[in-house]
Amino acid sequence: MSETTVNKESLVNQTANGRIMLACRDLTRIYREGPQDVTVLDGLSLEVRAGERVAVVGSSGSGKTTLLNLLGGLDRPTRGEVSIAGESLLDLGEAALGKFRNRRIGFVYQFHHLLAEFSALENAALPLIIRGQRKRAAESRARELLAKVGIEHRADHKPGELSGGERQRVAIARALVTDPSLVLMDEPTGNLDQSTAASILALMDELARTTDCAFVVVTHDPSLAAHQDRVMKLDGGRLTEQR
Ligand SMILES: Nc1ncnc2c1ncn2[C@@H]1O[C@H](COP(=O)(O)OP(=O)(O)OP(=O)(O)O)[C@@H](O)[C@H]1O
Question: Per the structure, how many domains does the chain have?
């Protein structure tokens, strides 16, 4: 057995017992598309426990989005390994990776990417429909999540009829509807006014208390970062603990 195989197995084992939900090691991403190679992540490591919330901060261009894309299986590392809930992303082909994302990972972005033609309920149910669940069961579960994020009364409204904070709540419900192991958030309060952002923070507190999923939150917002259990700074392609 090669050394890399041994290392990979120990990384998977780390996340297989449920306490460490996300582990990555030696994560390296070099973009080779332009005239010059750009090394954005350079041997980065991170572990996030079940129920733990980690903020990732860093200056513009430091590689935060690149990191989220690798953790979410939307991009492949040049080198290194990501393991989530006992599975190595490296072992999965494209189709299996798509299924894994649907089953295990919830995404929340600044501009939430809700489908304009669908109601809040249909948007929140979508990951379950994609997974092949029947509409009635999917919508029943989605309704529970809309209630959990305090927006059940807007279930039949389309995104265009909702406020920014309400849309963000629907996006959070959609991210959580599959009971994911990992939720990745990219500036989840970025385009919200202060009081709406505060209500999203309160919601995140509540979710952290009531789910055992791991959260990785990329943000420039110091108050959002301060709200997480740990704050990691991305600099020079690696993460260092700030708090
Ligand atoms: N597909 C790509 N090809 C080449 N270079 C890229 C590519 N994607 C990102 N980069 C470069 O990688 C670096 C990190 O980009 P990334 O978007 O991950 O940073 P970020 O920390 O999320 O920035 P911001 O806070 O401004 O959103 C930047 O220098 C960017 O130009």
Answer: 1
**ipTM of the complex in this document:** 0.96
178: CATH:
3.40.50.300
* pLDDT tens-digit series, residues 41-97: 999 999 999 989 999 999 999 999 999 999 999 999 999 999 999 899 988 999 999
Burial, 182: exposed, middle or buried (Cβ in 10 Å; 0-12, 13-18, 19+)?
buried
Asked if residue 169 is part of any domain, the answer here is: yes
How far apart are the CA of 66 and the centre of ligand 1, in A?
Answer: 6
Helix, coil or strand: residue 16: helix
- Residue span of the structural domain in which 227 resides: 50-78+94-242
Q: Whose CA is nearest to atom 26 of ligand 1?
A: 60
Q: Is the CB of 140 under 6 A from ligand 1?
A: no
> Measured in angstroms, how far is the CA atom of residue 186 from the centroid of ligand 1?
14
Say if 35 falls within a structural domain: no
Sheet containing strand 87-88, strands side by side: 38-49, 20-31, 79-84, 87-88
Does 22 reside within a domain? no
pTM of the model: 0.89
